[in-house]
Predict the structure.
Amino acid sequence: VRRPSLQDNPPEDTLAQIVDACREVVTEGGLASGDVLGIGIGLPGIMDLQTGVCHWSPNFKHWKDVPIGPVVAAGVGLPTFILNDA
């Protein structure tokens, strides 16, 4: 599924889009939560891979210390990992 990145919006808007898209993949794919082991998110920037926090991203000008991993994990109910997409 695809969603707009909302790069000029506050981080919460983009995180809500990510959570919504992840839920849609599970629902429309006919998957049970036990069928999915976790979520991986790749994006450019400086991040802490252990905590799932993006400290800065060139694509999202309002992002500073955004807890992507924890927010998406809580919203979807699955372990979530971030990685620099380079």
